[in-house]
Amino acid sequence: MSDEPTNDQEMDVEEPKRSQARVPWFAVILIVLGLILLAQQFGDFSFDNWWALFILIPVFSAFASAIAIWRRAGRFTFAVWSAFYGGLFPLLVAVIFLFNLDWEDYWPLFIILGGFGMMMGGLPFKRTGDEKTPRALRCHRGWAIFVGLAGTLLGLTFLAFNLNLIESLTFVGFENWWGVYILIAALGGLVTALCLFLGRHSFLLAVINLAAALLVGFAGAVALYNLDWNLIYYAAAILLILAGIWVLVGVGDKKDQQEPQE
Fold this sequence. Notes:
Blueprint: H1 7-20, H2 25-42, H3 56-73, H4 78-85, H5 88-98, H6 103-106, H7 108-122, H8 135-139, H9 141-162, H10 179-198, H11 203-224, H12 230-258
Helix pairs in contact: 3-4, 7-9, 9-10, 10-11, 11-12
């Protein structure tokens, strides 16, 4: 038999080379800048912050990497999202400069983007190394989901206020309206504790997360009702004492169970 590769084999060898080819975005940006400068010389076209186009170079690279990972995996994975998300922050900066947007109005977009990224990071994507990650640790992604959701909603509220979509940040009868978002973040602890308890991973971790959720939720209630912030210290001290007592009792119960019965 001949050892020469068949056409199918040649196509298999050449395919990775084509998929690994990258567009020289720096050259594309240079061409676009040249066209812009020519348009400014021969017409009434004006483009002040043209230099912001250079910020798009890492954006295009990040998006191209996301597309390449998507094609290799054949589906949307956490790696695809990570690569895509890496280009969103420089894209936002470039857009603000290119369109001469007011930073005082649009700064909440960064809070929205950060919160949304945290929320997406907590979703149950299949990730590399998940089979080696303890399931108890994966349960803690509930915190990321709800903290990210709270941050996203907080940014949207600020943005709506800056764009005059709402007249005042005092709504629902609460002066410290942002306490609502603290309560939303506290839900992450409840979800994490529930996941740990139902999955029978670690009752101690479940109690710790539940206590943390109660403390964060109490802070939200203190903010909403404009109570004395020192109450949070009292609540934290009480929770620590109760947790310590519970650990002592739990350790004692285990020792009693391990003693041989006569």
